[in-house]
C-alpha cells in the first residue's frame, strides 16, 4: 500500500494540492513556493526513510485563529513537506474509505457540500420528522482516542508502515515558542489528513444511527437527528449520548445538546421556518445575521482610516462570499433588509 501512496502520480497530485492551497509555513519556515526546491534536495532521502518506516515528521507550528462566536481555535500547521506526504496519504486512503461512508455524511467529502446537508434536514422536516436531536460533541478534534482510531484503521489498512506513519502524524509534537509539547490525544486541526480521519471516527456513529433506522444528517462533527415525536427524540438523545461516550470515547456537551424543534436550532448557519401545511423553508439563522453585521460594522467603521474604493472592495468581497453561502435560504427578505441596513451605515461614513 505504501508504494501506491508514494507512486509518482499520487505524489504529483498531492504536490499540486499543497501548492494550490498555499497556506502558512511550518516550523522549518519553508513556504509552498520553496517546496519544489526542497523536494529536489531532500526527497530521495525522505522517500527511502518512508519505505523503511524510519521517517519522523516534524512538529507542527501552533497558531490561534479567532472563532466566530469568540474565543480561539488552535491549529497545528505542518511543514509543507509533511503536508505533501499527508495529502498523498489522504488522496489514496480517501479512495478506499469514502465509498463506504454514509450518504448522510456531507463534510470534507468529494461532491458533498453544506447545502446538501441542509437540504436533507429540510426533507426530514417536510416528511413529518419535526423534532430534532441536536448533539454537541465537546472539543471533538482534541478528544479523539489514538488507540481506538488506530484499531479502526487497522481493519482496512494492512500495511504496518502506513499505520505507523499515521500514528506518528497523530502524535507529532506541537511547537510554540521553541518548545515542543507531545500530543497524546486528538486529531491536529490544520493538517490535510485530519478531515478524513475525523470522518473515519464518526463513521461508526453514522453506522449505529443507520442500524437503528434513525434519520440523521452530519457535516463533520456537526450532527442532527430527526424524530416524529418528542418522546422518540428524547429516547434517541439518551441512547446516542451513551453510545458516543461509552463506545466512541468522546464527550457530549450536555449544556449545548438538546431535543427541540428544528426552527429553534441552528444547523451550519441556517435554520428553518415552522412547517406550514407540511412545508418548512430554509432561513438564515439570526446568529449568522448578527455575525455578518458585526463584520460589516468593522468594514464601515469611521475608525478604519482607508479610502472608500478599498472599503467598498472589501465590503463587496465579504458580501459575495456571504451571499454565495446563504443563497440557499428561501426567505429573500433577509437579504433586502441587510442591504438597506448597509446603505444606512455607508451614508454615515
From TrEMBL:
Pfam family, one: RVT_1
GO biological process: defense response to virus
Enzyme Commission code: 2.7.7.49
Occurrences of domain Reverse transcriptase (ranges): 46-272
Keywords: Antiviral defense, Magnesium, Metal-binding, Nucleotidyltransferase, RNA-directed DNA polymerase, Transferase
GO molecular function: metal ion binding; RNA binding; RNA-directed DNA polymerase activity
Family: Belongs to the bacterial reverse transcriptase family.
NCBIfam families, per the entry: group_II_RT_mat
PANTHER family: NUCLEAR INTRON MATURASE 1, MITOCHONDRIAL-RELATED (PTHR34047), PROTEIN YKFC (PTHR34047:SF8)
Name listed for the protein in its UniProt record: RNA-directed DNA polymerase
Amino acid at each position: 500500500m505504501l508504494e501506491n501512496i508514494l507512486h509518482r502520480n499520487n505524489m504529483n497530485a498531492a504536490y499540486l494540492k499543497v501548492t494550490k492551497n498555499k497556506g502558512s509555513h511550518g516550523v522549518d519556515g519553508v513556504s509552498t513556493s520553496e517546496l519544489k526546491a526542497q523536494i529536489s534536495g531532500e526527497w530521495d532521502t525522505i522517500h527511502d526513510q518512508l519505505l523503511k518506516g524510519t521517517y519522523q515528521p516534524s512538529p507542527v507550528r501552533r497558531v490561534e485563529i479567532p472563532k466566530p462566536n469568540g474565543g480561539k481555535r488552535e491549529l497545528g500547521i505542518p511543514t509543507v513537506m509533511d503536508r505533501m506526504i499527508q495529502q498523498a496519504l489522504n488522496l489514496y486512503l480517501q479512495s478506499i474509505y469514502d465509498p463506504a461512508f454514509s450518504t448522510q455524511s456531507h463534510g470534507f467529502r468529494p461532491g458533498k457540500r453544506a447545502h446538501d446537508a441542509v437540504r436533507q434536514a429540510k426533507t426530514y422536516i417536510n416528511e413529518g420528522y419535526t423534532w430534532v436531536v441536536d448533539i454537541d460533541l465537546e472539543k471533538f478534534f482534541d478528544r479523539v482516542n489514538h488507540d481506538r482510531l488506530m484499531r479502526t484503521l487497522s481493519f482496512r489498512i494492512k500495511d504496518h508502515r502506513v499505520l505507523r506513519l499515521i500514528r506518528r502524524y497523530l502524535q507529532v509534537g506541537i511547537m510554540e515558542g521553541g518548545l515542543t509539547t507531545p500530543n497524546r490525544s486528538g486529531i491536529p486541526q490544520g493538517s490535510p489528513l485530519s478531515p478524513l480521519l475525523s470522518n473515519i471516527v464518526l463513521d461508526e456513529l453514522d453506522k449505529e444511527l443507520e442500524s437503528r433506522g434513525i434519520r440523521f444528517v452530519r457535516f463533520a462533527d456537526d450532527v442532527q437527528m430527526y424524530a416524529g415525536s418528542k418522546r422518540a427524540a428524547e429516547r434517541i438523545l439518551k441512547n446516542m449520548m451513551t453510545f458516543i461516550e461509552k463506545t466512541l470515547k468522546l464527550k457530549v456537551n450536555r449544556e449545548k445538546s438538546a431535543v427541540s424543534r428544528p426552527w429553534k436550532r441552528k444547523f451550519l448557519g441556517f435554520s428553518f421556518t415552522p412547517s406550514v401545511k407540511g412545508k418548512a423553508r430554509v432561513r438564515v439563522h439570526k446568529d449568522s445575521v448578527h455575525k455578518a453585521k458585526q463584520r460589516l460594522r468593522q468594514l464601515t467603521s469611521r475608525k478604519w482610516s482607508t479610502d472608500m474604493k478599498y472599503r467598498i472592495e472589501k465590503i463587496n468581497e465579504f458580501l459575495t462570499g456571504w451571499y454565495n453561502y446563504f443563497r440557499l435560504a428561501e426567505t429573500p427578505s433577509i437579504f433586502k433588509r441587510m442591504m438597506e441596513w448597509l446603505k444606512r451605515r455607508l451614508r454615515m461614513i
